[in-house]
Design brief:
Layout: H1 2-9, H2 15-23, H3 26-30, H4 34-39, H5 41-49, H6 57-70, H7 76-83, H8 87-103, H9 121-127, H10 130-150, H11 161-164, H12 169-182, H13 189-196, H14 202-212, H15 217-226, H16 236-251, H17 256-266, H18 270-279, H19 291-301, H20 305-320, H21 328-343, H22 358-365, H23 374-389, H24 397-407, H25 415-430, H26 438-462, H27 468-480, H28 484-495, H29 507-517, H30 520-529, H31 545-554, H32 557-560, H33 566-574, H34 584-596, H35 613-621, H36 628-631, H37 634-653, H38 655-660, H39 670-674, H40 678-686, H41 689-692, H42 695-706, H43 713-723, H44 725-733, H45 743-751, H46 757-768, H47 772-775, H48 779-784, H49 796-810, H50 814-824, H51 828-833, H52 839-844, H53 860-899, H54 908-937, H55 941-947, H56 956-959, H57 972-981, H58 991-1009, H59 1011-1020, H60 1027-1033, H61 1044-1048, H62 1053-1069, H63 1073-1092, H64 1095-1115, H65 1120-1137, H66 1146-1157, H67 1179-1184, H68 1187-1209
Helix pairs in contact: 5-6, 5-7, 5-12, 10-12, 10-13, 12-14, 13-14, 13-15, 14-16, 15-17, 16-18, 17-18, 18-21, 19-23, 21-24, 23-25, 25-26, 25-28, 27-30, 27-31, 31-34, 34-37, 37-40, 37-42, 46-49, 49-53, 53-54, 53-58, 54-58, 54-59, 58-59, 60-62, 62-63, 62-64, 63-64, 63-65, 64-68, 65-66, 65-68, 66-68
Length: 1210
């Protein structure tokens, strides 16, 4: 009772007085009453007596006013007497006493400050002079401070007569303030404040002390908070600390929010933060949300998990104690409840009416929330969700009743009203225990029915795309499919907080939804009638119709109840924009699945309908006209493209399952695919990757699988050249008022060639500055006139510029461009018959590309275009045949299975045969293309006459002597010199050479892509005259070394001869260990064949391959002995066959033996002429000579070539 009495007899410093002290406002101080002024005397007296730092005239005047103010107060004299004490000596005695106590272990035995007391502290204080009063108070204060230090944080309440006597409180306060002001190092104000919490009336002394040292306010508060408890309402010490800080903030309300921020920063004294919020009275009241709701919501819903846990613990611990009116938690709950009741519709009673007049009273009760209260109501709902879900608050019956009344109230049709209804609905799902009685359950059902009825009106009146109707529909679908975890995620995301909801707690709501409000048929029928979202994009958040349709498609509700959803999906895809909504691609995927896969095996016809071809064409045909692009966005076109490609891929992947069910869904026609600008759309998507999410990568994956000819590496590289920085800068420099040429002007310029070459060149150069998309209108004029460029005297620059324009167009419209180009380059004879190829024709037979005008083969810029198309169509043909086989194989197999029941092994046979036939057809196509291209590389008779007699290969002059080309009886240097002398007039830069290079580049890519093509072509063979070209021009031809041993093992002599000739060039080009081993094998095979071949076959075999031995020895000198031995054997075999004839062959055999044993002797020192001269024979003699004799002389000539080439190399 003493505390309460003293508290009533003492008054705290008012906020007005504290502000006056803080600002040293003398006028305000003069207006204070005597009791208020009495509390501030220690500071004012010191201010008047001490020498000031401020020597200004204004302060001198203020000081006079303060002295005049103090002159009439009697207590001033006692304070002046206190200030006249020797504080230095007092401080020394105090420090000695502290040391003494420290040595004595804190016992209060002897005291230097205070001698033996005759009476109690109060009487001693009353009868003492000022010095002794100071000593008494200082001794008592130091004792408390020391005990605080020794208590290790445990709270205690020190019974001190000096601080408890109501008669001497003012005098003790004066002494305390003077001591702290004069001895700040001995008595730090934070430590003094901490000590005062442990005595009665400590909060009053603390406020008085801080009021007399106003600058220390923040320092004292921060110190008290730092030393405070994490949960202040758990202990007496915490509650006293909270009360003291609360009094300090009432004294200085302008700093209350800063002190509250310190509380949150330190995570100490949560009750203080709430109390300060309850005490806070803002200057301008916020009509929307109260300070208490804002503060508690910020703690529980903020991003700092440490703060959230700390405050949640405060709520949980506070509930465990009995309800106390003094508890800060119960004060907070009461205030929140008052705010909740204040915004409830006034006509709503707090109890559900009786059954008799329920409809009337309820309808009259739903007057609805006032518009200005909706935002506040939403904030309160979220706060109660956080308190109950995160902090574990258990609402009282009164709180639960009022919450339910608020949640089932009807807001106005505004965006905030839509948000409020969504929050209320999610709170019902999160905390179904709020509905406990049948009356409350009936109230909730009526409210849900009202939501369904008013949803469309709210959406239209509020002007929002995401309404609560979609959420209701979505929850109903989740309940029907028993996806309770999805409902929990939906509730948490709507409320914006993670709440632990047990799935079992939703059982009552599930029953209400699935049986009373939303049956599955109602859900399905309602979903189709929901309007699509206009301009759907990722910028529209919330739960939309697309979420509902997606879930219904997943659960196959539409097919179960035979509801068509195709039109809704098509309309929604047409109403899309960037950035793309994340739900669109999953929607398309699940829709495609619902088209192809029946809902159940019992009812295989229960599928959705695909989008029709005409609807698809409507989207893409409009893109050709200027107004069409505005009608359908690029997002719509890309999504429809994704739908078609994904549909076709899934159809192929599902053929086996569909065949088992005897179903064959219709595939989209090739004519439709030809009208869709696939490459153009993908190119557009590439520049919008950030806005399209994963759509661009998904399209690329589908293209690489189904349209490999649109994903050529060369095209990607070419696109960089067309869309790179340099072309962009050139287009930026193009003036806007530049001359624009029409398609007819371009066509006329082509027709008047060659006289119109300058004008045509100007038009073409202008077109190179346009973007590929802007070139599309000129595509037909460019391709249709290609044949005109094959005429003589057309400048090369025009051809190269046309090639550049064609490659640019190829990046946006490749398939249509290829068809136009192939038709334009047909021979003139075909043009007369007006045969026009289609895309399908070219995919079935890619070799049509090579059936062009023969002049194209000697026009490098156009040949480059033809080769590009050929490569693309070969890839397209592979994909086409693969799809065709996949489409028909499983159905054919199914029919075979039905027709061949009981015959083991029959069903699998056709499938294997079809696959083999497909592979054989593809191999035949590829090898035929390669053979045709190799034939193109051969010079015509006219070109041979122009280029010279010894130019069978235009690459021979680069590589030196060509194996197999030296004439019988000629030496290596002479043969090589002959080639050099015969170099054509125009050098190596001819059209033929350029075409050969282009073809070799393509063959190199084909061999790398599929090495089997290289093997097949070389097993078929080709003219030996092309070997120097292919070996030198196709880098990947070295892979032939892998299968030459197999080629040598073939029974046909022609293939063996071709293998050895190929090997001779490979050894010269790639002098590798592998080449050496294969060359040894070839020499061994030649030796073996020598013993088994007949005379005629021996001549036809060895005559073309003997010169190859020169290349073997030139590439690998260690092979000389083996080659020489083989040559001698050949000579001996031939000599033995002609021994009976009258021919002088013995000297020849002797020469061969001599050449084998002493090859250096065949050439004179210093590089002179040979010691052994070959007999000079005319061509007629050789032609009429015996084959064996010819072979003998050829062997000798080969010996001489080997020796000459070896010595020349040295």
């Amino acid at each position: 009772m003493l505390i309460q009495q003293t508290s009533r007899n003492t008054s705290f410093v008012s906020s007005y007085a504290f502000e006056a002290m803080q600002k040293v406002d003398v006028a305000r101080l003069a207006a204070l009453s005597d009791p208020e002024l009495r509390l501030l005397l220690p500071c004012l007296v010191r201010m008047a007596l001490c020498a000031p730092a401020d020597q200004s005239q204004s302060w001198a005047q203020d000081k006079k006013l303060i002295l005049r103010l103090l002159s009439g107060v009697e207590a001033v004299n006692s304070i002046v007497a206190l200030l006249s004490v020797d504080f230095h000596a007092l401080e020394q005695d105090a420090r000695k006493e502290q040391q003494l106590r420290h040595k004595a272990g804190g016992s209060n035995g002897e005291s230097i400050l205070v001698s033996q007391l005759q009476h109690g502290l109060t009487l001693e204080f009353e009868h003492s002079d000022p010095l002794r009063r100071l000593r008494l108070t200082l001794s008592e204060l130091l004792a408390i401070m020391n005990k605080v230090v020794d208590s290790n944080g445990e709270f205690f309440l020190k019974s001190s007569e000096l601080f408890e006597s109501p008669v001497y409180l003012d005098e003790v306060a004066d002494v305390l303030c003077i001591l702290q002001a004069e001895l700040p190092s001995l008595l730090p104000i934070v430590d003094v404040a901490e000590a005062l919490l442990h005595v009665r009336n400590g909060d009053w002394f603390l406020c008085l002390l801080v009021a007399n040292v106003p600058d220390s306010f923040n320092e004292v508060c921060r110190g008290l908070i730092k030393n405070g408890e994490r949960q202040d309402e758990e202990s007496v010490g915490g509650r006293r600390r909270t009360e003291a800080l609360r009094q300090l903030c009432q004294m200085n309300p302008s700093q209350a929010l800063n002190i509250r921020a310190m509380v949150v920063e330190e995570c100490h004294l949560p009750g203080l933060g709430v109390a300060l919020t309850l005490d806070y009275r803002p200057d301008t009241a916020d009509e929307a949300v109260s300070p208490l709701v804002s503060y508690v919501s910020g703690l529980l819903l903020g991003t700092n998990s440490k703060v959230r846990t700390w405050f949640s613990m405060f709520i949980r611990n506070g509930q465990q104690r009995k309800r106390e009116s003094s508890s800060v938690l119960w004060q907070m709950r009461r205030q929140l409840l008052l705010e909740l009741v204040a915004i409830l519709p006034r006509s709503r009673s707090t109890h559900v009416p009786n059954d008799g007049n329920m409809e009337e009273e309820v309808s009259s009760g739903y007057s609805g929330l006032r518009e200005e209260h909706v935002v506040k109501a939403s904030a309160l709902l979220r706060l109660y969700c956080a308190l109950m879900g995160i902090a574990g608050l258990r609402p009282t019956d009164e709180e639960a009743e009022q919450l339910l009344q608020l949640m089932t109230s009807r807001p106005p049709a505004t965006p905030a009203g839509v948000r409020f209804v969504s929050l209320s609905f999610c709170k019902l799902l999160a905390f179904p225990t709020l509905v406990s009685t049948p009356e409350q359950e009936q109230l909730m059902v009526m409210w849900l029915s009202w939501m369904i009825k008013e949803e469309e009106y709210f959406e239209s009146a509020a002007g929002v795309s995401a309404s609560f109707g979609e959420m209701l529909l979505l929850v109903a679908m989740y309940f029907h499919s028993n996806q309770l975890s999805s409902i929990i995620e939906l509730v948490c995301s709507t409320l914006g907080m993670k709440i632990a909801i047990k799935p079992s707690s939703l059982s009552k709501m599930k029953t209400i939804f699935t049986q009373e409000i939303f049956t599955e048929q109602v859900v399905t029928a309602h979903a189709v009638r929901v309007a699509v979202t206009n301009n759907l994009s990722a910028n529209i958040t919330g739960f939309l119709p697309i979420h509902c349709i997606y879930q219904l498609l997943r659960s196959r509700s539409f097919t179960k109840h035979k509801v068509s959803i195709k039109d809704w999906i098509y309309r929604q895809l047409c109403e899309t924009n960037t950035p793309i909504h994340t739900q669109l691609i999953p929607l398309i995927d699940v829709y495609i699945n619902s088209i192809l896969t029946p809902a159940s095996k019992a009812n295989p016809e229960a599928t959705n309908q695909p989008i029709t071809e005409q609807e698809i064409l409507n989207v893409f045909q409009s893109s050709g006209s200027r107004g069409g692009r505005q009608r359908y966005s690029i997002t719509t076109q890309l999504l429809i493209l994704y739908y078609i490609l994904s549909y076709e891929e899934n159809l192929l992947a599902s053929t086996k399952q569909l065949a088992l069910m005897q179903r064959k869904p219709k595939s989209y026609s090739a004519a439709l695919m030809d009208q869709i600008p696939i490459k153009y759309l993908v190119t557009q998507a590439q520049g919008l990757q950030q806005e399209l999410g994963g759509l661009h990568s998904a399209l690329l994956r589908l293209l690489a699988t189904n349209y490999p000819h649109l994903c050529l590496v060369e095209d990607w590289v070419c696109e960089e050249e067309v869309t790179g920085t340099l072309p962009l800068l050139r287009r930026m420099m193009l003036p806007s008022n530049t001359c624009r040429y029409t398609q007819s002007q371009l066509h006329q310029a082509f027709l008047k060639l060659p006289s119109s070459s300058p004008r045509l060149m100007r038009i073409l150069e202008h077109l190179t500055l346009l973007s590929p998309g802007d070139l599309i209108p000129y595509a037909e004029a460019l391709t249709a006139s290609m044949a005109l460029l094959l005429e003589p005297a057309v400048p090369r620059r025009i051809l190269q510029t046309l090639n550049k324009l064609w490659m640019g167009l190829n990046t946006v419209m490749p398939r249509r461009l290829w068809v136009m180009t192939v038709n334009a380059l047909q021979p003139s004879a075909k043009l007369l018959r007006q045969q026009q190829y289609t895309q399908n024709d070219l995919m079935v037979d890619p070799l049509i590309v090579l059936r062009c005008d023969q002049r194209v083969y000697r026009c490098p810029p156009l040949m480059d275009i033809v080769l590009h198309m050929l490569n693309g169509y070969l890839l397209a043909s592979k994909a086409y045949l693969h799809c065709h086989l996949k489409e028909t194989a499983d159905f054919d197999r199914q029919s075979q299975t039905v027709s061949n029941l009981g015959v083991p092994g029959q069903p699998d046979t056709p499938e294997v045969t079809r696959e083999e036939l497909k592979n054989a057809l593809l191999s035949a196509q590829d090898s035929a293309a390669v053979q045709i291209l190799l034939e193109v590389c051969l010079p015509t008779s006219e070109e041979q006459q122009q280029l010279g007699a010894n130019t069978e290969s235009l690459l021979s002059s680069i590589r030196g002597p060509v194996p197999g080309k030296s004439k019988r009886g000629s030496l290596g240097p002479r043969a090589r010199g002959g080639v050099e002398d015969a170099e054509p007039e125009g050098g190596l830069l001819s059209d033929l050479r350029e075409v050969q290079c282009l073809i070799c580049c393509l063959l190199h890519q084909m061999f790398i892509a599929d090495p089997n093509i290289a093997k097949l072509v070389h097993f078929q063979g080709y003219p030996q005259a092309l070997l120097p070209l292919t070996v030198a021009g196709i880098p990947s031809i070295h892979i032939c070394l892998d299968f030459i041993p197999e080629l040598l093992a073939q029974p046909q002599l022609e293939k063996q001869i071709f293998a050895i000739q190929l090997l001779s060039y490979l050894c010269t080009q790639y002098a590798l260990p592998k080449s050496l081993s294969v060359a040894r094998l070839a020499i061994s095979v030649m030796g073996t064949l020598l013993t088994v071949l007949t005379r005629a076959k021996r001549f036809s075999f060895f005559m073309p391959i003997l010169p190859c031995l020169v290349a073997f020895c030139q590439a690998f000198p260690p092979l000389y002995d083996e080659v020489a031995g083989l040559l001698v054997q050949v000579g001996q075999v031939c000599a033995s066959d002609v021994a009976t004839k009258a021919r002088d062959v013995d000297p020849l055999i002797a020469r061969l033996q001599y050449l084998k044993e002493k090859p250096q002797g065949a050439v004179a020192p210093g590089g002179g002429s040979s010691k052994l001269t070959l007999p000079q024979r005319t061509a007629e003699e050789h032609g009429g000579a015996d084959p064996d004799v010819q072979l003998c002389y050829c062997v000798e000539a080969t010996f001489m070539d080997i020796i000459s080439a070896t010595l020349h190399g040295l």
